[in-house]
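Running this now, will post back.
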Amino acid sequence: MPLNTFVMSFQGSTKAYQHRRSNFRGFLLEPIGTAFPELKAQFSDLMRMTLEPVSNLERTWRGSMQVLGDEFTVHVIETRG
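Update: finished.
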């Protein structure tokens, strides 16, 4: 099962989280809620965030959206092994 590393930024703070899941998209709220528990009330909005592949990088995705007036950004890097 791949190891997924999430690097998230919000309101000037950057945090990282790792977990093993077969499909990180189905578990995206787990790392967000752990890293930024103050965003749990915005989960319904965050579920609609689209993750797009990062050009020139394999198995790397990026998503961002406005939450509580600030930009929330997440990068997901999948490591096999």
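Residues 3-79 form one domain. More later if anyone needs it.
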